[in-house]
Amino acid sequence: MTTVRQRRVGKGTEAAEDQPSEEKNVKPDGKTLSAHTGGKLWNILSITVGGIVAISVGLLTSVYVATLHENDLWFSNIKEVEREISFRTECGLYYSYYKQMIQAASIQQGLHGLVYDNKTESVRTINILERMNVYQEVFLSILYRILPIQQYLEPVYFYIYTLFGLQAIYVIALYVTSWLLSGTWLSGLLAACWYITNRIDTTRVEFTIPLRENWALPFFAVQIAAITYLLRTHLQPLQERLTLMAVFIATFLFSLTWQFNQFMMLIQALTLFILDCFDMLPTAKVTWLYIIQISGLLLVCVLQFFNSMILGSLLISFNASVLIARTIQKNLKKGGLLNRLGKLILHVLLVLCLTLLINKFIKKILNLESDEHIFKFLKAKFGFGATRDFDANLYLCEEAFGLLPLNTFSRLSDTLLFYIYIFVLFLMTVAAVIVAFRNLSGSNQAQFVEKMEECTITLKPDAAYNLIHTVLFGCLALSTMRMKYLWTSHMCVFASFGLCSTEVWKLTLNCIHLYTSQRTRVIKYSIPIITLLYISYKFWPGIMDELSELREFYDPDTVELMNWIKSNTPNTAVFAGSMQLLAGVKLCTGRTLTNHPHYEDKNLRERTKQIYQIYAKRSPEDVYRILRSFGTDYVILEDSICYERRHSRGCRLRDLLDIANGHIMDGLGENEPDLKPSLYPRFCEEIKKNLPSYTIHFTRVFQNKTFHVYKLAKHK
């Protein structure tokens, strides 16, 4: 039962729809026809101008972030090894597969090297296409090979320009979503301007280019725009089918490009579930969206060689549970308030129980443990017991996985974004609560229509979806800082929509008894224009200064290390070290690794914990035995980890290892009572003393201010 009242288009349109098209209703002078033609021409002109502005703003954003990247690193002038080192941590790992495909003798050999990869994890052959979301690198490398651009454009520029180009799509999608919600492209322009002026909090593409989210979020924004359009009423069947196809394609591409897709879409599925429970969305469209999510994820599962983590995702279990529960509870949306509430509570409990049962069953059948570290992290993060689990603590101690810092809100407030967002959010939430209560109270269709005519507060399905979407993703961002980019970009959309929305201003003016249609129209255009002028006046000089500021990439120690590895070690050499550094070793030198930053595999997590014993209090014999068990030839020790000061006591990597090993931590401070002193000194410190017990197993072959490389002896 749809409970959302449609916004009236205007008297002229109502007359055209309601009155019979008899000849007597048409004035002899043809004024009605002229007005209708003028209205259509005005709409065409508005859409054309709005479309041109959208594309222009998108392209300008793309050029803006590309220029910032160039100015920050002097990317066009630095050496190839420096360019590659600039792709830090997991970014370097992902880019290495693009480079690998480019350098392969043929596309077939490149794909074979990815499917049967024995250089990413030593003494193991893994399927990169199954384990990681790197189809975008594969597609881009094939495109680069077949296009006649090799002599004009280096592979690295083709790669980064593609990512910067996706930023144009991202901004255009945000622009269109805001335009669809408000009915005016002025809203889209304001959303785009907020996205740019709040760049620090809306994107990090200019310094983490290959990161999976930079590939995925543009497609997620396109999907939200398509869903917003789909939830409009009175769509023609062809329009609806085409929109569903657009939603499916965007969902599929989003799922294909990011390993955390299932968690983001689970929040989206919860949004649909909440709105459907309160009868605020058409049930048929919600069902289609559930099916699209499942089918898109299953298609990705097939392309990733039946990745078990996807099959065991909570999203598939939840969506299947909702569809099953609907079948069981057929009369869910009938009856009075108390009857509906009772059914609703039972429905929620049924869906929750079915989700847990189905998910537990799938994981038991598949023996799935790939994502257990995420649930351990969540359990510890939200206070369900302390943990000594190394993987969970590794996440808990990272700032990116902590709570959203309060200074984020002060930055967002400088552009007026946060203030306006809270204002719009409050009004829309009040309207949603009233509409939801009214929907649950409606006992029959006749009474429902009567109440709708009497009540002035309405909420369109597309606005309702974006309201719950922003609330749930806001909760995610507040709890985990790394996920703020999903919220802040949508915050720009939601705030700009509210500022340009007839419904929001009508509700506001009605509350203070000042409503007139003419006053509403003036306010909905004048305040956004004033806001745009304010943003331009305050931030344009800063943007110009930012674009004129020139820096240069400088990391001589890492450059020296990579050059030494390429010149002084065999191509088959196996290197051990920190996850972040080894990703760069693979990219810059092509050597085999023992571990890497893509953490979604239980065996790799256990392997990483073992490799990291080089920073723990272990005997040289134990460390040597562990490293050789993974085929290690060289181990790289970093002073920045061994003597770390970035984190406080208890969160330093060496502290996490001590706790996991049951050892007392270094330094002043409390220790848990059952922790014991270690029998051995810290390996990374003691090895530098060249004691016989160490030199028998390890020989230092390279050293600079940051890194120490030791070659392992090959004992019989």
TrEMBL record:
Q: Where is this region: Disordered?
A: 1-32
Q: Which UniProt keywords apply?
A: Glycosyltransferase, Membrane, Transferase, Transmembrane, Transmembrane helix
Taking the first listed entry, what is the main subcellular location of this protein, grouped into a coarse class? Answer: membrane
The entry's localization annotation reads: Membrane
* Gene Ontology MF term list: mannosyltransferase activity
Where is the sequence biased in composition, kind Basic residues?
Answer: 1-10
Q: Which Pfam families match?
A: Dpy19
InterPro entries associated with the record: Dpy-19/Dpy-19-like, Dpy19L3
TM ranges? 41-66, 179-197, 217-235, 242-260, 266-284, 296-324, 344-362, 416-437, 522-540
Q: Where is the composition biased (Basic and acidic residues)?
A: 21-30
GO CC terms, sorted: nuclear inner membrane
* Membrane topology (UniProt): Multi-pass membrane protein
Q: Which PANTHER family match?
A: C-MANNOSYLTRANSFERASE DPY19L3-RELATED, DPY-19-LIKE 1, LIKE (H. SAPIENS)
Q: Which family does it belong to?
A: Belongs to the dpy-19 family.
Record's protein name = D19L3 mannosyltransferase
